[in-house]
Write a structure and sequence with these properties.
With 330 residues, the chain is α/β, with parallel strands linked by helices. 47% of the residues lie in helices and 17% in strands. It is built from 13 helices and 12 strands. The chain has a 6-stranded parallel beta sheet with strand order 2-1-3-4-5-11, with helices on both faces. The termini are far apart. The model has no long low-confidence stretch (mean pLDDT 90). InterPro entries: HTH_LacI (IPR000843), LacI/GalR-like_sensor (IPR046335), Lambda_DNA-bd_dom_sf (IPR010982), Peripla_BP_I (IPR028082). Pfam families: LacI (PF00356), Peripla_BP_3 (PF13377). Keywords: DNA-binding, Transcription, Transcription regulation.
Length: 330
C-alpha cells in the first residue's frame, strides 16, 4: 500500500493524506481521522527512509547520559524511549562514561543521524554545548544554559530538605560529599545546602569534587570522618552507599554513629542495608518531559521553544540510614 492508496480511500488529495500522517496540526480533525482510518484499514505503513529523504527528518532522537551503569539513568531512558515511540520516534542512547571528550564526539556523531538530542547531566563547558546546540536542537536535563531548553529536577529543594532533616534530628556538624567537577547538580546542592545549614545554625563541610560512584563514596570516607560530622549528604545514592561501605570498614555504624542521606531514590538505595534515606528525583517524568520539549521544537519550528524550561519537584524519603546523633561521640 502507498500513500496514494490511502488518499484515494479517504477521498482526499495525496498531499492532504501526507500532511494528515506527518503534520496533523495542519489538517482539519475530521479529515485527519478519515485519513488515519483509511491507513489503518489498508494496513499502510510509511516508508521512513523515503520520508527522511523528502523531509530531511530521520524521526530518530539521541539521548546521551554520563554513565549508563548508574541506576539513576535507566528509568529516565526507558521513559524517554517509550514516550518517543508513541510519537513515532526512535531513540539512540549513548554513554559518555563521564568523559567530556567522548561527550563532544558523541554529539557530533549523532548529529548526522538524529533530528535532536537530549543531553542528561552533561559535563561539557557551557560555551561548547551552546556552540554544538547551534546546529542541532538540544534539550538539557539537569543543566541550565541560556538559549537552550531544559528539564531541571529541583535538587536544591532536596538538599535543603536533607539539611533540615538532619538538623531536626539534632545534628550540628554535617558534611556534603559533592560530585564531579562541572556538575550542575553538585553546584546546586552546594549552594542550597550551604544556605540551609547557615539558616539552621549548623556547620557544613563541603568535600569534593568526587567521582559519582560507589568507589567515590568509599574514597571520601576518611575525609568525612576527619570533619567530625555526624550527618553526611552524598552526591547521589551510589556515593551514599559507598560511604556506608567505607564507614563500616572504619568500624562506624550507620545510623547509630553517623547518619547518611543519598540523592536519586534508586533501587540500589532501597535494597541497601540500612535502607537509604534519600532525595527522590523524578527521573521518569524528566525523560518524558525532555522528549516533549524536543518534539515541540522539531514539529513546530518555532524558536521560542528553544528557551522552554521545566522544573520538576523532588522530595525527601526517610528510611533507615538517618537517626539522632549519638550523644556519646566526641
Amino acid at each position: 500500500m502507498t500513500i496514494r492508496d490511502v488518499a484515494q480511500a479517504a477521498g482526499v488529495h495525496v498531499s492532504t493524506a501526507s500532511r494528515a500522517l506527518t503534520a496533523s496540526h495542519l489538517v482539519k480533525k475530521e479529515t485527519r481521522e478519515r485519513v488515519l482510518a483509511a491507513a489503518a484499514r489498508l494496513g499502510y505503513r510509511p516508508n521512513e527512509s523515503a520520508r527522511a529523504l523528502t523531509t530531511g527528518r530521520t524521526r530518530n532522537l539521541g539521548l546521551i547520559v554520563s554513565d549508563i551503569a548508574n541506576p539513576f539513568f535507566p528509568p529516565l531512558i526507558k521513559a524517554a524511549q517509550a514516550h518517543a515511540r508513541v510519537r513515532g520516534y526512535q531513540v539512540f542512547v549513548a554513554d559518555t562514561d563521564e568523559d567530556v571528550r567522548v561527550e563532544e564526539e558523541l554529539i557530533q556523531t549523532l548529529a548526522r543521524q538524529v533530528d535532536g538530542v537530549v543531553l542528561v547531566s552533561p559535563r561539557l563547558a557551557d560555551d561548547v554545548i551552546a556552540r554544538l546546540g547551534g546546529d542541532l536542537p538540544f534539550v538539557l536535563v539537569n543543566r541550565q544554559i541560556t538559549g537552550l531548553s531544559a528539564v531541571l529536577m529541583d535538587v536544591a529543594h532536596g538538599a535543603v530538605r536533607a539539611v533540615e532533616h538532619l538538623a531536626g534530628l539534632g545534628h550540628t556538624r554535617l558534611a556534603l560529599v559533592c560530585g564531579p567537577r562541572g556538575s550542575w547538580t553538585s553546584a546546586q546542592m552546594r549552594r542550597a545546602a550551604g544556605q540551609a545549614a547557615a539558616d539552621a545554625g549548623v556547620r557544613l563541610d563541603v568535600l569534593g569534587p568526587n567521582a559519582p560512584t560507589e568507589q567515590g563514596g568509599i574514597a571520601a570516607t576518611a575525609e568525612v570522618l576527619r570533619t567530625g560530622a555526624t550527618g553526611v549528604i552524598g552526591y547521589n545514592d551510589l556515593v551514599a552507599i559507598g560511604l556506608i561501605e567505607g564507614l563500616d570498614e572504619h568500624g562506624v555504624r550507620v545510623p547509630d554513629d553517623l547518619s547518611v542521606i543519598g540523592v536519586d531514590d534508586t533501587v540500589a538505595g532501597r535494597l541497601n542495608r540500612p535502607r537509604l534515606t534519600t532525595v527522590a528525583m523524578p527521573t521518569a517524568p524528566a525523560g518524558r518531559t525532555a522528549v516533549d520539549l524536543l518534539l515541540q521544537t522539531l514539529e513546530s519550528g518555532e524558536p521560542d521553544h528553544a528557551t522552554a524550561q521545566t522544573t520538576l519537584a523532588t522530595s525527601l524519603v526517610v528510611r533507615d540510614s538517618t537517626a539522632p546523633p549519638d550523644q556519646s561521640r566526641g
